[in-house]
Each structure stands twice: as C-alpha cells, then as structure tokens.
C-alpha cells in the first residue's frame, strides 16, 4: 500500500525529534533541559483544537466563546491590515490548565545589567531560559543565585515558535480583556514576520512597536479612542521610570567606585525607583496600586532586565514607521534591512533613529 504524505503529528516528530537528537549531544544537563522543552511543546501541540470547533461546541462557556470570537476578528485584522503572517497561528485553541505556559529565568552578574545568554539552534542566543514547570524554573534560579547571580523568574503568557508550529490561543488568556488578547496576537505574529538571531533587544522592541501601533489602529477600527487610556499611560510611565533607573545603574557599574560602594549605590537606586514610583502612584495615578506587588517585591538587576529587552528600541521603530508614512509593507522592508546589518552597525543605526526623534 502506498503511504500518503505525513500527517500533522508526523510533521511534529519530523521537526522535534532531529532537533532533540542534536541537543542530546551537548551532555546530560542539556539533555534534561531540552527534553522538558520538547515534552512541554509536544503537550501544547496535542492540546490544540481549531477555534471554530471550540466555538461551535455547545459545551463551550459563553465567556470562552466570546473571547475566541473576538480573537478571530483581531487575527483577521492582523493579517489584512497589519500585514502580519496569514497562517493557522492563533486560529487554534489549547487548554493548558495553568496560569502561564512557561516560566522564564533571567540572570545578570551582581554588578552588571548584561544578561546571561543562552543559545538555541532555532532562536539563537536569548537573554533567558524557559521552563514548562514553575518548580524547575525556581530550581534553576536557586542554582544561579548560589553562583552569585542576580536572578528573576517571570511567568510567560505566550510565546512564538517563529512559524515552526501553529501557535495557539491558551486557556490562561480567557480571563483577559479583548484588547489585551488582541495585543498579544499582534506581538507574537510580529516575531513570525521577522526575527534576528542573537538580538533579543531588537526582536522584542520590534514586536512591542507592532503591538502598540497595531493596538492603536485596532482601537480606531473599533470606533474607540486611539489611546489605550489611563492604564496604557500608567504602563508607559512605569517603563520610563524603570529605564531611567537602568541608565543610572549602568553608569554606576561602569564607574570608578569599588564593589562595596557599587553595592551601596545599587540599593540606593532601587530605593529611588520606589520613591519616584510612590510619588507617581499617589499623585497622577490617584493611589492606584496595580504595580505595588512588583515594585515592592525583591529587587535586583535581573528583575529590571525585561524592560530593557522589550522597550529599548521602540522609539526607533516608531521613527521608521513615520518615515515610511505608516505603510506596513515598507516598514517591514526597512526593519529587514536593519536586521541584516552586523549587530554593531544595527545598534548604531537604531541609536541614530533615537537621536533624530
């Protein structure tokens, strides 16, 4: 009997098994880590169902059905208006039974904001390691702390497989607002649209810009104000506070103080960050405490790391978007040109865009 072409699950194995075989050559510890990645991704893929089937199922809750219907509209908008990939990603749904899909572990030296990077065959080098079980992430973080690192563990609500698989809408997103779900779709599809190996700051800033501008246009299409309102403004103000703190810390770590003095200056900067946050919260925000838990939890370099990674070059991409007159196709062409530059040339070009704002 002639065998037909590979089915969906066969294609999964075609992609995953050779990858794992390569990774196993890196040693036992790597085998254990990458094994949990493959197992976690495999479970996620098995849980997927087409959105239309979930919506048509009489047992589907009203809340889930409404979220998926809205997601379908946002997904269509992403491809038609934002020129993002038109594939099956976010047209499938998976019930994962937990609040986060993975937990990322960020780490830096005690007196540096330079991230500890980890390199992967597909994604290249990134500034974190992901774990599908929270306990495993915490265990890895504890070992890094023993080595004197600043470490932060953060739950991740979604991630992109860069087009290798059809990324799903997750059950952990059901309680989100419609807008938050749309913004995530825009952000993750941007990673599929373009991705540069070994440059986390570029990739995340690019996706964050697409998310922000895409959300602005999405709101206008729905007949809403272009601005995300008070919550969006608060988030932007918090980001500015944290990035300013990072810049001051960078200057301290690069300066002439000895290590004892740098440690004292580091803690003083964290107290300044909290003080400036309190002034903003109790003043302009009217006492809104939505960010208190984050701000008053243990603070270190690694906790600040995602802000620099996700937001550093957003204004530069905004400048590119203005230069092309808001044309998404031309914008992506310019982004690809930047991405093809050597990394130092790329950073210099982005810095020039920032200076010319």
UniProtKB/TrEMBL annotation:
<dbReference type="Pfam" id="PF10023">
    <property type="entry name" value="Aminopep"/>
</dbReference>
<keyword id="KW-0472">Membrane</keyword>
<keyword id="KW-0378">Hydrolase</keyword>
<dbReference type="InterPro" id="IPR014553">
    <property type="entry name" value="Aminopept"/>
</dbReference>
<protein>
    <submittedName>
        <fullName>Aminopeptidase</fullName>
    </submittedName>
</protein>
<keyword id="KW-1133">Transmembrane helix</keyword>
<feature type="transmembrane region" description="Helical">
    <location>
        <begin position="12"/>
        <end position="34"/>
    </location>
</feature>
<dbReference type="GO" id="GO:0004177">
    <property type="term" value="F:aminopeptidase activity"/>
</dbReference>
<keyword id="KW-0645">Protease</keyword>
<keyword id="KW-0812">Transmembrane</keyword>
<keyword id="KW-0031">Aminopeptidase</keyword>
């Amino acid at each position: 009997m002639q065998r037909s072409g590979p089915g969906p699950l066969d294609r999964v194995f075609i992609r995953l098994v050779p990858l794992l075989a390569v990774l196993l050559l890196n040693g036992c510890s790597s085998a254990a880590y990458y094994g949990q990645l493959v197992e976690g991704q495999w479970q996620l893929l098995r849980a997927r169902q087409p959105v239309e089937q979930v919506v048509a199922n009489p047992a589907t809750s009203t809340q889930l059905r409404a979220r998926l219907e809205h997601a379908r509209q946002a997904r269509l908008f992403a491809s038609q208006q934002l020129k993002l990939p038109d594939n099956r990603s976010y047209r499938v749904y998976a019930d994962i039974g937990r609040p986060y899909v993975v937990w990322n572990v960020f780490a830096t030296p005690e007196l540096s904001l330079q991230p500890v990077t980890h390199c992967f065959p597909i994604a290249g080098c990134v500034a974190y390691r992901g774990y599908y079980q929270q306990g495993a992430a915490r265990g890895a973080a504890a070992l890094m702390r023993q080595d004197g690192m600043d470490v932060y563990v953060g739950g991740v609500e979604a991630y992109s497989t860069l087009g290798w698989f059809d990324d799903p809408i997750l059950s952990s997103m059901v309680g989100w607002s419609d807008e938050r779900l749309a913004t995530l779709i825009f952000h993750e599809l941007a990673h599929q649209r373009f991705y540069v190996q070994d440059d986390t700051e570029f990739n995340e800033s690019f996706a964050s810009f697409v998310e922000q501008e895409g959300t602005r246009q999405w709101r206008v299409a729905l007949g809403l104000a272009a601005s995300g309102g008070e919550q969006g403004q608060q988030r932007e103000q918090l980001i500015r506070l944290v990035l300013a703190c990072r810049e001051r810390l960078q200057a301290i770590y690069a300066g002439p103080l000895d290590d004892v003095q740098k440690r004292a200056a580091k803690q003083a900067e964290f107290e300044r960050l909290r003080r400036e946050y309190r002034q903003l919260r109790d003043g302009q925000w009217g006492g809104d405490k939505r960010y208190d838990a984050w701000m008053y939890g243990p603070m270190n370099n690694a906790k600040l790391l995602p802000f620099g990674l996700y937001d550093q070059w957003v204004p530069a991409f905004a400048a590119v978007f203005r230069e092309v007159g808001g044309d998404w196709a031309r914008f992506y062409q310019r982004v690809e040109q930047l991405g093809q530059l050597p990394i130092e040339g790329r950073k210099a070009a982005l810095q020039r865009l920032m200076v010319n704002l």
